[in-house]
Design brief:
seven-stranded mixed sheet; Metallo-beta-lactamase, Chain A; 16 strands; alpha/beta
Protein backbone atom coordinates (compact mmCIF):
# COMPACT_ATOMS: atom_id res chain seq x y z
CA UNK A 1 0.00 0.00 0.00
CA UNK A 2 2.87 2.37 0.82
CA UNK A 3 4.42 1.73 -2.59
CA UNK A 4 1.07 2.42 -4.24
CA UNK A 5 0.78 5.77 -2.48
CA UNK A 6 4.36 6.65 -3.36
CA UNK A 7 3.61 5.77 -6.98
CA UNK A 8 0.48 7.96 -6.99
CA UNK A 9 2.44 10.89 -5.55
CA UNK A 10 5.24 10.47 -8.10
CA UNK A 11 2.78 10.28 -11.00
CA UNK A 12 0.86 13.31 -9.72
CA UNK A 13 4.07 15.32 -9.33
CA UNK A 14 5.10 14.31 -12.83
CA UNK A 15 1.77 15.41 -14.27
CA UNK A 16 2.05 18.78 -12.49
CA UNK A 17 5.58 19.34 -13.81
CA UNK A 18 4.55 18.31 -17.33
CA UNK A 19 1.51 20.59 -17.23
CA UNK A 20 3.57 23.56 -16.05
CA UNK A 21 6.02 22.99 -18.90
CA UNK A 22 3.36 22.57 -21.56
CA UNK A 23 0.72 25.12 -20.53
CA UNK A 24 1.84 28.42 -22.13
CA UNK A 25 0.26 30.86 -19.65
CA UNK A 26 2.94 30.04 -17.08
CA UNK A 27 5.64 31.36 -19.38
CA UNK A 28 9.13 29.99 -18.90
CA UNK A 29 11.65 30.30 -16.10
CA UNK A 30 15.06 31.52 -17.30
CA UNK A 31 17.37 28.65 -18.23
CA UNK A 32 20.46 27.81 -16.19
CA UNK A 33 22.62 29.55 -18.78
CA UNK A 34 20.37 32.60 -18.66
CA UNK A 35 20.38 32.58 -14.85
CA UNK A 36 24.18 32.60 -14.92
CA UNK A 37 24.05 35.71 -17.08
CA UNK A 38 21.47 37.33 -14.77
CA UNK A 39 23.72 36.69 -11.76
CA UNK A 40 25.88 39.60 -12.90
CA UNK A 41 23.19 41.94 -11.58
CA UNK A 42 23.72 43.43 -8.14
CA UNK A 43 20.06 42.58 -7.41
CA UNK A 44 20.65 38.84 -8.05
CA UNK A 45 21.53 37.20 -4.75
CA UNK A 46 21.68 33.47 -3.96
CA UNK A 47 19.97 32.42 -7.15
CA UNK A 48 17.17 34.97 -7.29
CA UNK A 49 16.44 38.69 -7.48
CA UNK A 50 15.94 40.58 -4.25
CA UNK A 51 14.83 44.06 -3.23
CA UNK A 52 17.30 46.73 -2.26
CA UNK A 53 15.72 46.98 1.21
CA UNK A 54 14.49 44.21 3.55
CA UNK A 55 10.97 43.25 2.50
CA UNK A 56 8.51 41.39 4.68
CA UNK A 57 6.07 39.08 2.90
CA UNK A 58 4.81 36.88 5.72
CA UNK A 59 3.04 33.96 4.08
CA UNK A 60 3.15 31.66 7.09
CA UNK A 61 0.26 29.36 7.93
CA UNK A 62 -1.50 31.81 10.23
CA UNK A 63 -1.27 34.71 7.79
CA UNK A 64 -2.33 32.55 4.86
CA UNK A 65 -5.38 31.32 6.75
CA UNK A 66 -6.35 34.89 7.67
CA UNK A 67 -6.06 36.00 4.03
CA UNK A 68 -8.18 33.08 2.79
CA UNK A 69 -10.75 33.79 5.50
CA UNK A 70 -11.01 37.45 4.51
CA UNK A 71 -11.36 36.65 0.80
CA UNK A 72 -14.09 34.11 1.53
CA UNK A 73 -16.10 36.63 3.53
CA UNK A 74 -18.74 38.32 1.41
CA UNK A 75 -18.44 42.05 0.87
CA UNK A 76 -20.80 43.97 -1.45
CA UNK A 77 -18.24 46.67 -2.19
CA UNK A 78 -15.30 44.65 -3.43
CA UNK A 79 -16.75 44.96 -6.91
CA UNK A 80 -18.84 47.81 -8.36
CA UNK A 81 -22.58 47.21 -8.40
CA UNK A 82 -22.60 47.87 -12.14
CA UNK A 83 -19.81 47.90 -14.75
CA UNK A 84 -17.85 51.17 -14.76
CA UNK A 85 -18.50 53.43 -17.72
CA UNK A 86 -15.50 53.41 -20.05
CA UNK A 87 -14.63 55.91 -22.78
CA UNK A 88 -13.83 54.83 -26.31
CA UNK A 89 -10.17 55.85 -26.59
CA UNK A 90 -8.61 57.95 -29.29
CA UNK A 91 -5.48 56.36 -30.73
CA UNK A 92 -4.18 59.32 -32.71
CA UNK A 93 -0.40 59.54 -32.59
CA UNK A 94 1.19 62.97 -32.81
CA UNK A 95 3.87 65.08 -31.15
CA UNK A 96 1.72 65.85 -28.10
CA UNK A 97 2.25 63.95 -24.87
CA UNK A 98 -0.92 62.04 -24.07
CA UNK A 99 -1.85 59.21 -21.75
CA UNK A 100 -4.77 56.81 -21.88
CA UNK A 101 -5.38 54.60 -18.85
CA UNK A 102 -7.33 51.40 -19.60
CA UNK A 103 -7.82 50.16 -16.03
CA UNK A 104 -5.47 48.50 -13.56
CA UNK A 105 -1.96 49.47 -14.79
CA UNK A 106 -2.45 49.21 -18.57
CA UNK A 107 -1.74 52.60 -20.16
CA UNK A 108 -0.85 54.01 -23.56
CA UNK A 109 1.66 56.87 -23.68
CA UNK A 110 2.23 58.87 -26.84
CA UNK A 111 5.21 61.21 -26.78
CA UNK A 112 7.14 62.92 -29.57
CA UNK A 113 5.25 60.87 -32.16
CA UNK A 114 6.03 57.53 -30.49
CA UNK A 115 3.58 55.18 -28.80
CA UNK A 116 4.46 53.16 -25.71
CA UNK A 117 2.12 50.58 -24.20
CA UNK A 118 2.68 50.00 -20.48
CA UNK A 119 1.81 46.69 -18.77
CA UNK A 120 -0.90 45.87 -21.32
CA UNK A 121 -3.18 43.49 -19.43
CA UNK A 122 -6.33 43.41 -21.58
CA UNK A 123 -7.51 39.94 -20.59
CA UNK A 124 -10.60 38.86 -18.67
CA UNK A 125 -8.83 37.94 -15.42
CA UNK A 126 -5.26 38.11 -14.03
CA UNK A 127 -4.81 34.38 -13.70
CA UNK A 128 -3.24 31.43 -15.53
CA UNK A 129 -6.84 30.16 -15.80
CA UNK A 130 -8.73 33.33 -16.86
CA UNK A 131 -12.01 31.52 -17.49
CA UNK A 132 -12.44 30.78 -13.74
CA UNK A 133 -14.08 33.18 -11.30
CA UNK A 134 -15.13 36.78 -11.60
CA UNK A 135 -12.91 38.86 -13.82
CA UNK A 136 -12.70 42.39 -15.17
CA UNK A 137 -15.36 44.71 -13.70
CA UNK A 138 -16.32 46.06 -17.11
CA UNK A 139 -16.58 42.61 -18.64
CA UNK A 140 -14.51 43.75 -21.61
CA UNK A 141 -12.80 46.71 -23.20
CA UNK A 142 -14.40 49.65 -25.06
CA UNK A 143 -12.32 48.80 -28.13
CA UNK A 144 -11.05 45.80 -30.04
CA UNK A 145 -7.36 45.03 -29.62
CA UNK A 146 -7.13 45.01 -33.42
CA UNK A 147 -7.97 48.75 -33.29
CA UNK A 148 -4.75 49.54 -31.44
CA UNK A 149 -2.27 51.49 -33.58
CA UNK A 150 1.19 50.19 -34.35
CA UNK A 151 3.01 50.23 -31.01
CA UNK A 152 6.62 51.38 -31.04
CA UNK A 153 7.35 49.61 -27.75
CA UNK A 154 5.73 47.69 -24.94
CA UNK A 155 7.23 48.42 -21.51
CA UNK A 156 6.71 45.78 -18.83
CA UNK A 157 7.30 46.32 -15.12
CA UNK A 158 7.32 42.64 -14.07
CA UNK A 159 5.88 39.24 -14.90
CA UNK A 160 2.82 38.92 -12.63
CA UNK A 161 -0.43 37.96 -14.37
CA UNK A 162 -2.09 41.35 -13.80
CA UNK A 163 0.75 43.02 -15.73
CA UNK A 164 1.98 40.42 -18.22
CA UNK A 165 -0.95 38.59 -19.83
CA UNK A 166 -0.35 35.73 -22.25
CA UNK A 167 -3.57 36.28 -24.21
CA UNK A 168 -2.90 39.98 -24.66
CA UNK A 169 0.69 39.45 -25.79
CA UNK A 170 -0.41 36.89 -28.36
CA UNK A 171 -2.92 39.38 -29.81
CA UNK A 172 -0.61 42.40 -29.97
CA UNK A 173 2.84 40.94 -30.62
CA UNK A 174 2.76 41.41 -34.40
CA UNK A 175 2.05 45.15 -34.12
CA UNK A 176 4.76 45.86 -31.53
CA UNK A 177 8.17 47.06 -32.63
CA UNK A 178 10.05 46.34 -29.41
CA UNK A 179 9.43 44.77 -26.01
CA UNK A 180 11.45 46.53 -23.29
CA UNK A 181 11.50 44.51 -20.09
CA UNK A 182 13.40 43.98 -16.82
CA UNK A 183 16.01 41.22 -16.60
CA UNK A 184 14.78 37.68 -17.22
CA UNK A 185 11.30 38.52 -18.53
CA UNK A 186 12.41 37.78 -22.09
CA UNK A 187 12.18 34.05 -21.28
CA UNK A 188 8.37 34.28 -21.12
CA UNK A 189 8.12 36.29 -24.33
CA UNK A 190 10.45 34.01 -26.29
CA UNK A 191 8.39 30.99 -25.27
CA UNK A 192 5.34 32.81 -26.68
CA UNK A 193 6.98 33.20 -30.08
CA UNK A 194 8.48 36.67 -29.90
CA UNK A 195 11.83 36.89 -31.64
CA UNK A 196 14.75 37.66 -29.28
CA UNK A 197 15.77 40.53 -31.55
CA UNK A 198 12.52 42.34 -30.67
CA UNK A 199 13.27 42.23 -26.92
CA UNK A 200 15.51 44.46 -24.80
CA UNK A 201 16.25 43.55 -21.17
CA UNK A 202 17.46 46.04 -18.59
CA UNK A 203 18.71 46.20 -15.03
CA UNK A 204 17.96 48.90 -12.48
CA UNK A 205 19.52 52.26 -13.32
CA UNK A 206 20.13 51.35 -16.96
CA UNK A 207 19.60 54.50 -19.05
CA UNK A 208 19.28 54.28 -22.83
CA UNK A 209 17.67 55.89 -25.87
CA UNK A 210 14.79 54.49 -27.90
CA UNK A 211 13.50 56.15 -31.06
CA UNK A 212 14.55 59.59 -29.80
CA UNK A 213 13.18 59.08 -26.27
CA UNK A 214 15.32 58.62 -23.20
CA UNK A 215 14.27 55.68 -21.04
CA UNK A 216 15.56 54.47 -17.68
CA UNK A 217 14.84 51.21 -15.89
CA UNK A 218 14.50 52.21 -12.24
CA UNK A 219 13.95 50.29 -8.97
CA UNK A 220 10.75 49.09 -7.37
CA UNK A 221 10.13 47.15 -4.17
CA UNK A 222 8.15 44.10 -5.16
CA UNK A 223 8.73 40.51 -6.37
CA UNK A 224 8.10 38.30 -9.40
CA UNK A 225 6.91 34.85 -10.41
CA UNK A 226 4.21 33.07 -12.40
CA UNK A 227 4.34 29.54 -10.98
CA UNK A 228 5.35 27.50 -7.93
CA UNK A 229 9.03 27.40 -8.84
CA UNK A 230 10.04 30.80 -10.24
CA UNK A 231 9.64 33.36 -7.46
CA UNK A 232 12.36 35.97 -7.88
CA UNK A 233 13.61 34.40 -11.13
CA UNK A 234 13.04 37.67 -13.02
CA UNK A 235 13.46 41.32 -12.07
CA UNK A 236 10.76 43.92 -11.40
CA UNK A 237 11.11 47.65 -12.02
CA UNK A 238 9.64 51.10 -12.61
CA UNK A 239 10.26 53.22 -15.72
CA UNK A 240 11.30 56.77 -16.57
CA UNK A 241 10.14 58.02 -19.98
CA UNK A 242 11.60 61.35 -21.17
CA UNK A 243 11.02 63.22 -24.41
CA UNK A 244 11.78 66.66 -25.77
CA UNK A 245 9.26 68.52 -23.60
CA UNK A 246 7.81 65.88 -21.24
CA UNK A 247 8.89 63.43 -18.59
CA UNK A 248 6.75 60.61 -17.16
CA UNK A 249 7.31 58.19 -14.29
CA UNK A 250 5.60 54.79 -14.26
CA UNK A 251 5.86 53.15 -10.84
CA UNK A 252 5.04 49.54 -11.71
CA UNK A 253 4.13 47.69 -8.51
CA UNK A 254 5.96 48.73 -5.38
CA UNK A 255 5.86 49.17 -1.67
CA UNK A 256 6.86 52.56 -0.34
CA UNK A 257 10.65 52.69 0.03
CA UNK A 258 13.65 55.04 -0.34
CA UNK A 259 14.05 54.33 -4.06
CA UNK A 260 11.36 56.91 -4.87
CA UNK A 261 13.49 59.73 -3.46
CA UNK A 262 16.54 58.38 -5.28
CA UNK A 263 14.63 58.40 -8.57
CA UNK A 264 13.39 61.92 -7.89
CA UNK A 265 16.90 63.15 -7.20
CA UNK A 266 18.30 61.58 -10.37
CA UNK A 267 15.46 62.08 -12.85
CA UNK A 268 12.86 64.45 -11.41
CA UNK A 269 10.86 66.56 -11.74
CA UNK A 270 8.21 64.68 -13.72
CA UNK A 271 5.32 66.24 -15.59
CA UNK A 272 3.21 63.17 -14.79
CA UNK A 273 3.41 60.11 -12.59
CA UNK A 274 1.41 56.93 -13.11
CA UNK A 275 1.49 55.72 -9.53
CA UNK A 276 0.37 52.37 -8.12
CA UNK A 277 -2.71 52.77 -5.93
CA UNK A 278 -4.75 49.70 -5.06
CA UNK A 279 -4.67 46.00 -4.09
CA UNK A 280 -3.05 46.86 -0.74
CA UNK A 281 -3.27 45.29 2.71
CA UNK A 282 -1.36 45.66 5.98
CA UNK A 283 -0.19 42.06 5.55
CA UNK A 284 1.66 42.86 2.32
CA UNK A 285 2.29 46.59 2.76
CA UNK A 286 6.00 46.17 1.95
CA UNK A 287 5.17 45.29 -1.67
CA UNK A 288 2.05 47.41 -2.32
CA UNK A 289 1.67 51.00 -1.14
CA UNK A 290 -1.22 52.33 0.88
CA UNK A 291 -2.99 55.20 -0.96
CA UNK A 292 -1.46 57.83 1.31
CA UNK A 293 1.98 56.39 0.53
CA UNK A 294 1.14 56.60 -3.17
CA UNK A 295 0.82 60.38 -2.81
CA UNK A 296 4.03 60.56 -0.78
CA UNK A 297 5.87 58.54 -3.44
CA UNK A 298 4.64 61.03 -6.05
CA UNK A 299 6.05 63.86 -3.92
CA UNK A 300 9.33 61.95 -3.48
CA UNK A 301 9.92 61.58 -7.23
CA UNK A 302 9.07 65.27 -7.67
CA UNK A 303 5.93 64.73 -9.71
CA UNK A 304 3.66 67.57 -10.84
CA UNK A 305 0.49 65.68 -11.83
CA UNK A 306 -0.45 62.20 -10.59
CA UNK A 307 -2.80 59.58 -12.05
CA UNK A 308 -3.52 56.72 -9.64
CA UNK A 309 -3.34 53.33 -11.37
CA UNK A 310 -3.51 49.64 -10.36
CA UNK A 311 -7.21 49.85 -9.54
CA UNK A 312 -10.58 49.98 -11.31
CA UNK A 313 -10.47 46.63 -13.12
CA UNK A 314 -9.90 43.67 -10.80
CA UNK A 315 -10.32 42.66 -7.16
CA UNK A 316 -6.96 41.42 -5.85
CA UNK A 317 -7.35 42.54 -2.22
CA UNK A 318 -10.11 42.75 0.37
CA UNK A 319 -10.63 46.52 0.43
CA UNK A 320 -13.56 48.18 -1.37
CA UNK A 321 -12.98 48.49 -5.10
CA UNK A 322 -13.01 52.30 -5.02
CA UNK A 323 -11.41 52.80 -1.61
CA UNK A 324 -7.95 53.32 -3.07
CA UNK A 325 -8.81 56.22 -5.36
CA UNK A 326 -11.01 57.91 -2.73
CA UNK A 327 -8.18 57.80 -0.19
CA UNK A 328 -5.61 58.93 -2.74
CA UNK A 329 -7.73 61.93 -3.73
CA UNK A 330 -8.13 62.98 -0.08
CA UNK A 331 -4.40 62.60 0.53
CA UNK A 332 -3.59 64.55 -2.63
CA UNK A 333 -5.82 67.47 -1.60
CA UNK A 334 -4.35 67.42 1.91
CA UNK A 335 -0.83 67.65 0.46
CA UNK A 336 -1.73 70.13 -2.32
CA UNK A 337 -0.86 67.56 -4.98
CA UNK A 338 -2.42 67.85 -8.44
CA UNK A 339 -4.30 64.65 -9.22
CA UNK A 340 -6.19 63.55 -12.33
CA UNK A 341 -8.83 60.81 -12.24
CA UNK A 342 -9.74 60.01 -15.85
CA UNK A 343 -12.29 57.38 -16.71
CA UNK A 344 -10.87 54.21 -18.18
CA UNK A 345 -10.26 54.83 -21.86
CA UNK A 346 -10.25 58.62 -21.46
CA UNK A 347 -7.20 60.28 -23.02
CA UNK A 348 -5.61 63.19 -21.19
CA UNK A 349 -3.14 65.73 -22.55
CA UNK A 350 -0.25 66.01 -20.12
CA UNK A 351 0.27 69.73 -20.72
CA UNK A 352 -3.41 70.68 -20.70
CA UNK A 353 -4.71 73.57 -18.61
CA UNK A 354 -7.25 71.31 -16.85
CA UNK A 355 -7.52 67.62 -16.03
CA UNK A 356 -10.46 65.28 -15.35
CA UNK A 357 -11.24 65.17 -11.63
CA UNK A 358 -14.87 64.05 -11.43
CA UNK A 359 -15.44 61.23 -8.89
CA UNK A 360 -17.00 58.86 -11.43
CA UNK A 361 -16.33 55.86 -9.15
CA UNK A 362 -18.85 57.06 -6.57
Amino acid sequence: MLLIWIGIIVVFAGVVVLFMNVYPHFGRKPSKAKAKDLSRSVQYVNGKFENAVPTMMDMGFKTTVSILRDFIKSSPNRRPSSPPVMDVPSFSKDKETKVTWFGHSASLVTMDGKSLLLDPMFGKAPSPFPWFGKGRYSGGLPFEIAELPEIDAVLLSHDHYDHLDYGTIMKIKDKVGKFIVPLGVSSHLIRWGIQPGKIEEHDWWDEFTFEGLTLACTPATHFSGRSLTDRGATLWCSWVIAGVNSKIFFSGDSGYAPHFKAIGEKYGPFDLTLMECGQYDDRWSDIHMMPEETVQAHIDVKGKLMIPIHWGAFTLAVHDWNDSVSRAVRAAYANEVAIATPRMGQTIHVHAAEYPQAPWWS
